[in-house]
Amino acid sequence: MRILQVSAELFPxxxxxxxxxxxxxxxxxxxxxxADARVLLPAFPAIAAGVADARxxxxxxxPWGEPALLRFGYIDGGAGRxxxxxxxxxxxxxxxxxxPYEGPGKQPYGDNHRRFAMLGWAAALLAQGLDPLWRPELxxxxxxxxxxxxxxxxxxxxxxxxxxxxxxxxIHNLAYQGQFGGWAFAELGLPPEAFQVEGLEYHGDVSFxxxxxxxxxxxxxxxxxxxxxIQTPEQGFGLDGLLRARSGALHGILNAVDExxxxxxxxxxxxxxxxxxxxxxxxxxxxxxxxxxxxxxxxVDERAPLFIVVSRLTxxxxxxxxxxxxxxxxxRGGQLAVLGSGDAWxxxxxxxxxxxxxxxxxxxxxxDEPLAHRLFGGADVVLVPxxxxxxxxxxxxxxxxxxxPLVHRVGGLADTxxxxxxxxxxxxxxxxxVFERFEGEDYARALRRxxxxxxxxxxxxRVRATAMRRPADWGTAAEHYLTVYRxxxxx
Length: 491
Fold this sequence. Notes:
The structure is a single chain. 37% of the residues lie in helices and 20% in strands. By secondary structure, it is an alpha/beta fold. The chain has a nine-stranded mixed sheet, with helices on both faces. Strands 15-14-13-16-17-18 form a six-stranded parallel sheet, with helices on both faces. It is globular, with a radius of gyration of 23 Å.
């Protein structure tokens, strides 16, 4: 099966969130399962620098006349794996430093509708034979940035072009929809009938997310629970009606962990590698914790439970609950380490708390991939109290590295973490701490339960062992995607 994965970012070249981890791992897992998988990416500077010897394939123009060049090369996927890659070379659109979506002042670029329409347009042209040596059978478009790819393909099929190619669209986070004023529609090269309720029109605006949801042959999202939640007004962000109407085409496929990147037994970022076979006392993890405490300027104390946050610093991630619970965490003898960036007020709040008690709290504003690995390697608990969470990879990394997740029961967090309730402890299935209501009181209760378990070392080690053994491989997820692809092709 020839599959073209279409996305705006891909780990390890360009990452602003979990989307890049998925788009970096899935095509390699599909290839391992026997598929002919390639990726299509904008030639942002960080991406272009990581594609070896990209050769020209074809020139083309966007609907509004912008010229572009399609190139082909390979990304080093690690462990001897090469990922075949198409780049859209359009310097006027993509040759900008830093964040791929925002300019100075964290403001979205004013031409983002063109920049990501170009991504969808190039995908549809590949489906119609832009590369004479390779044509996909299926387009898999990821998130709103690639949302126009299924729309362009649907109308191309109406013209008898790319008639045998089908599309799958994956929602990674429905809260970000790629919404632009209705004025943008004239530049997109779609027929007038596309700009209506039965299309991509959304309250007079253009929605790239809605385009993907309406025109794709099949829709996936990144956890089974989130697939149900987005069909409700509470989490549907105005698109729940469309998603309910298309529920027969909607699948929830849980994300996985790329073990070539996230594996404490082989992770070169750690002070000492470790794995379950070394024994439940995990001497290697204890060494990682001490090294991390020293690196961050925290008191080196093996008895102090170390809680971490590795996240965007936003209200959606529930981090105001973490701020509100810091005093209780410190009173019980805990430490806190934070890595992330986001809302300015929240960055400042964590900085101030760290400055006031530098031996107990550390805050690193920004993102540092090696440090993230060391945080998971040394932590006892990873805090993921999100208001909503499509899947979440943070808690899955925590499970893999023996940092027990403390989570709100929502989305993929509900699908991946089993609470340390008595019955789950008795059955040997517990892997973390789960609270029900998105309120400070419920979060505080979960925090107290984490301390209570930590004070019972034998029980803590047993739960940690269960967490680390939880399967989360991309091979299984890839098989689920291949099933959806076959459904789409039979559609």
